Amino acid sequence: MTYKDCGSHSHSRRKLIRRIIWSIIIILFIIFLTILLIWAILQPSKPRFILQDATVYAFNVSGNPPNLLTSNFQVTLSSRNPNDKIGVYYDRLEVYAAYQNQQITYRTSIPPTYQGHKEVNIWSPFVYGNSVPIAPFNGVSLDGDQENGVIRLDIRADGRVRWKVGAFITGKYHLYVRCQAFINFGNKAAAGVVVGDNAVKYTYAQSCSVSV
Fold first, then answer.
1. d(C-alpha 194, C-alpha 185), whole Å
2. In what residue span(s) does the Late embryogenesis abundant protein LEA-2 subgroup domain sit (predicted)?
3. Cβ atoms of residues 56 and 202 within 8 Å
């Protein structure tokens, strides 16, 4: 074989490799474009959360001035996936309570789970805090609200989710859930149901705001 033949053979091999590489790139591009089109056509909707109820086992402000809060709740949250063809992976979800934008309990983690099409999940985590320091102005306001008989809290859930379309799974998105809960201390019988020693269950069944 002459040098000319070797050079021609090497050139043909490089040409074949380039064709294979470009074919792979085109195929990947078509797959990616198809996924984007499917994603745009399906237009995934955010999960819908409902705060079903909250059971208050403890809620006390102490200190002088009042700046320490001890609380213990059990809340029931339901989540529904409204999509027909898109599933939701909850990689992380942490529930806690807040008062006037200040976190007043520790975070409770919900186990990672997958939510199928039109599926509903219900969680009943405990959220609590022992002598949690709160801002002085919030402490005074909280003590005053408790004396007046009504306190408005935010039950929150922060986490990360992924969407599943067929075999395609997206990257992680932040999930923020905000639910309002009113606790009445003036008349327990009128506001909730006594379920144990110093425990009162409040039923809400109200929608929460959700952002992704």
1. 12
2. 76-179
3. yes
As a whole number of angstroms, the distance between CA 133 and CA 72 comes to 15
Name beta bridge partners: 79. Answer: 49, 121
Helix (H) or strand (E) holding 139: helix 136-148
In tens, the pLDDT along 117-162 reads: 999 999 999 999 999 999 888 878 887 887 788 899 999 999 999 9
Please report, for the chain, the start and end positions of each structural domain, with discontinuous segments joined by +.
10-42, 48-211
Cα–Cα distance, 142 to 183 (Å, whole number): 12
Token pair belonging to 201: 């269950």
Q: What phi and psi, each to the nearest 5 degrees, are found at residue 85?
A: -130, 15
Q: Is omega for the bond preceding 65 within 30 degrees of 0, making it cis?
A: yes
